[in-house]
Amino acid sequence: MANESDSGQEKTEQPTPKKLRDAKKKGQVPRSKELNSMTVMVFGAIGLLFMGSHMIADISDFMTRGFTLSRQEVFSPQAMVERFSITVADALAAIGPFMFLMTVVAIFTPLAIGGWAFSVEAMAFKTDRINPLNGFKRMFSSKGLMELIKAMAKFLVVSVVAVVFLWSKADDFLGLGAQSLALALYNGAWLIGISFLVVSSTLILIAAIDVPFQLWDHAQKLKMTLQEVRDELKDTEGKPEVKSKVRQVQQEMAQRRMMEAVPEADVIITNPTHYAVALKYDHDNMAAPLVLAMGKDLIALKIREIAAFHDIEIFEAPPLARALYANCKIDREIPSHLYFAVAQVLAFVFQLRIAREHGSEMPDRPEPYIPTDEEV
Q: Structure pTM?
């Protein structure tokens, strides 16, 4: 059965990215102790196979040197300290590579299925962790049952494999007694490494079962109810009424900025009453005319009022005004299929401006050509 929340709703929804991030901040990530144990033991066995003989040889050498003391060294505290320092350095050099390998494996193996997760909250002291009742609940929970099954399975599998393998290698182990010390140490290290590797490899089966289970269990714990998903969406994106108010404020601010740009326009193309589009064109700095402002009804009326106050030419061209309103965006250049029509209007406006300044003959008013959909 699916998990149920306190509200009684089934947790049927997969965790959201925010839920996963919050869980990771709290240190709640999938982990597999079986994977950690398996990798440490397997790599430890491999390390012993490749480094064991050298380690034993080095340890034998520094132990021989360490216990071979002259009379003068025995009665000289300074010489004993030096000999001890040399022996410690030799011991670290002998086992250092193996310990480094084990440290790297132990640190990076947990990152394989859960990634890096450092949480102060997870390390905080909590009284429920030392509560005996909670301990009994964990022991007799489904997870506790799974841990018991895994422990029994490990014991049986490892025991059977160990007994069978050691029985098959009994003659090799007994034969070490007939060998010289150096050869016996070398062969003994090899046999121990092989035995350790074979026994450790049995844990691969346990880890292969445990890793998918831990991933599934982690996902189940983080599942959410539909209401939790909705509440999170509200918290993340805001409540509808707040979002509506924010959009309203943003629209008002955008409208104010748009109206402040109207005085910079070269021409206002109107419907004449329903639509108004303010255009500006600077042939030295612009590739195409720019839309400074546009709107319909009350906004169109406000644009026309500002244009009239600043003596900006208002050009009535209903088809062009509708086409600009439908195809343009504020602070963007006009689309290419309207270049010719707008160029006719701007040429007329610039000529009209020159004629008024010099008192010359007024230009003829053009009829902007709007291409059809097939022509576009």
A: 0.47
